[in-house]
Amino acid sequence: MQFGNLVPAIVAGVLSAQLAFYSGAARATGSDPLAELKRSGRVLVLPHAHAPGTGDPAHFKPHVCRTQRNLDAAGRKQAAQLGEHLRAAGVAHAKIYSSQWCRCLDTAKLLKLGPVSELPALNASPDRPEDRARDIDALRNFLAALPRDGGPVIMVTHPDTVRALSGGNAASAGGVILALDGSRVPRVVAEIKFK
To answer: Which residues lie across from 176 on neighbouring strands?
Structure first.
């Protein structure tokens, strides 16, 4: 399922209210799960912001945005607001990686938390099933190699990739925070959901 199908209600909530965040720990203690990003070795994996429609046209070409499904004005505002919430939670800078799809790159840049690096392993789109297993495998290897004592990392990708990394437990319209442990399957320590 593509993020674009889920977003009309999500965007309305994001534009009219704060982002709400949930995790088991946060519900129990009342704390903000984004505070996890201040700890060493944390990775926030996000789906791209609102991009109307589903999938990409048959003539899709990476790096040629006019051939792709892109963020609309609501999606750009949604990404900028998420960046504001991350800064309010104390995340001033992060290492940011993005899928090479324009809607992911634009979401990552609009967070305004640092330079954005393209990471082909984040391209694991259901629109390209022939590449998906290879990309997920490469992404798991990348996560295993990240330093456990490093600063915050943000990855912007596709909703199905977020769900693959979380074992299928991620919110349909949100992301997850992973705790790096040197393995290919880091533990999910928090879930965020756009309200």
So the answer is: 45, 191
Kindly list the strands in the beta sheet with 153-157, ordered across the sheet, starting from the edge strand earlier in the chain. Answer: 21-22, 187-193, 174-179, 42-47, 153-157, 95-98, 116-118
In the numeric block, the tokens 């442990």 are attached to 181
Q: Classify residue 140 by burial, with Cβ atoms within 10 Å: 0-12, 13-18, 19+.
A: middle
Distance of alpha carbon 166 from alpha carbon 133, whole angstroms: 15
- Round to whole Å and give the CA distance between 69 and 102: 8
Structural domains in the chain, sorted by start = 3-193 (3.40.50.1240)
pLDDT, tens only, 118-133: 999 999 766 677 788 8
In whole angstroms, give the CA distance from residue 11 to residue 76: 10
Strand partners for 192? 21, 175
For residue 180, pLDDT over 70 is answered with yes
pTM over 0.90: no
